[in-house]
Amino acid sequence: MPTPLFAKLRLRGLILILAIASVLMTLGNSFYATYQIQRQLLITNTLEANRVYASKLANITDVFLSTAQSQLAYSASQLSSKIDKPKQLASEINRLYKQSAMFNSVVVIDIHNKILEVAPISLPVKGQVVAHPTISHLDELKKPLITKPFISKADNYLISISHPIFDENKQYQGHISGTIYLEHDNLLNTILGEHYYNDGSYLYVVDGDKTLIYHPDPQRVGEKVFDNPAIDAVVKQHSDAYAIKNSADIDMLAGFAPITRAGWGVVSQRPTKATLTELDDHIWQVFLRSIPLILLILIAIWLSARFISKPLQELANQARVMDNKDSQQKIINIHSWFYEAAQLKRAILKGMGLLHDKISQLHTDSHTDPMTALLNRRGLQQLLEQYESETQTFSVIATDIDFFKHINDNYGHDAGDNVLKELAVLMQNNARQQDAICRTGGEEFILLLPSTSADEAFIIAERLRNQVAQHTMPDDVGVVHISLGVAYWPGSPTSISQTFKRADQALYQAKRQGRNRTIAAEQP
Ligand SMILES: Nc1nc2c(ncn2[C@@H]2O[C@H](COP(=O)(O)OP(=O)(O)OP(=O)(O)O)[C@@H](O)[C@H]2O)c(=O)[nH]1
């Protein structure tokens, strides 16, 4: 019958598979859990860092705007009642333009929206009337104002920070306005742009209409951004941090904070991938560093699997070749150090013992006469083969009960059996340890006397005959006699069968000569 596939699996292999699978699964699980926890932590920290950073930039920008407004307010106070004095106007706005370095240009505009003075002077807008595109009512200019982005007469995309100018009677005379060109270098751009990193992190500023007024990519300044949850929230003046997708569909971790003074918002963001790349490297480093320990664990598992499976494997190997002569000793020598192996070993040895007993019982039965417990013909044959192979000389005494038929006839078959048993006992008592006694037929017996000459055998035969003649048989049978024929086997060249024939002939001679006697066969 073919062995099932699974039956070929060894315990050691199974233990190894189980243990290695457990170790790998545990390790995999640990790495996965660590990765997930670290990932979440990193994302949370990055979001918070971006929010704090956006908040800081928003504050700085707020301070910048506040300072710009203060500077304009100061200039406006200096120009009170001097709106019609061009020299003083020009002097003050030049001072402001150069000293503050906050603005790309500074202008003074009267109540008719006419530009009275401009700094730098190179700007060709003096005397022009400007209709302010982001102002719905001129009254808005009567108070400090930060405009929405717009394109100026000189074709610059800018925001304007203005402050009204009043005369001594608090009459509105016009306003002073500092502009910040959104697509040019200026102090605001420097403040925001200095924080541009190489790992893909960047920040941008939107106004209240979700229009980009600062972006590291100048091309995008002026672009209106839709469907961005961070921008949606920051224009509502919220400060928070979200994981979002940017306009290029890249996952970003964005923190944002409002610039309340202007209604703008700062968004600082870092690509999620850039954040997690560090973690991937980190986990990979942890894995590489744990390889030696993992290898040690695997070696330990392999040795343990060997150690645990060894007794069972050895028992299985021996059980497979149990017909081997040394099997029993080899099984005894197996070190069964744990309970199951010890019990298995005990059971195998017990089974082997029982088997040996049974086999030896069968061997004995097949070589023994059941009634007398003497050797039968097969037993005799085996012994003779041994003597022949060892060239063991011996004498043979062929024995037969005289007139045994009469005993059966007169006392019954059972009494006859008892006579046979009694005679077997007499023969055993009369024999030496090395002698063999066989019952070869009904009332026929053979005695084999190793290393015994014909003369000695004759004496032994006679002694037996006399003992039998003096013995009283049971069941009222009384005295019986036996006749005996003796022959000697001197080893080769005479055959054993010839020797037996001569012993038989001597026995028949004894019968013919009147029974109850011993005849020694002539030596050939
Ligand atoms: N009780 C009993 N009788 C047996 C057994 N085997 C053989 N016999 C009997 O032994 C008798 C042998 O008789 P014979 O061969 O004529 O020999 P004998 O009567 O002993 O005569 P001689 O050998 O010439 O002296 C027979 O009657 C067999 O039936 C046995 O196991 N038990």
Automatic annotation (TrEMBL):
Every GGDEF domain range: 392-523
EC number(s) given by UniProt: 2.7.7.65
Pfam families: GGDEF
Entry superkingdom: Bacteria
Reactions this protein catalyses: 2 GTP = 3',3'-c-di-GMP + 2 diphosphate
InterPro entries in UniProt: Diguanylate_Cyclase (IPR050469), GGDEF_dom (IPR000160), Nucleotide_cyclase (IPR029787), Rev_trsase/Diguanyl_cyclase (IPR043128), Sensor-like_sf (IPR029151)
PROSITE patterns per the UniProt record, alphabetical: GGDEF
CDD domains tied to this protein: GGDEF (cd01949), PDC2_MCP_like (cd12912)
Record SUPFAM superfamilies: Nucleotide cyclase, Sensory domain-like
Name of the protein this chain belongs to: diguanylate cyclase
Species this chain originates from: Oceanisphaera pacifica
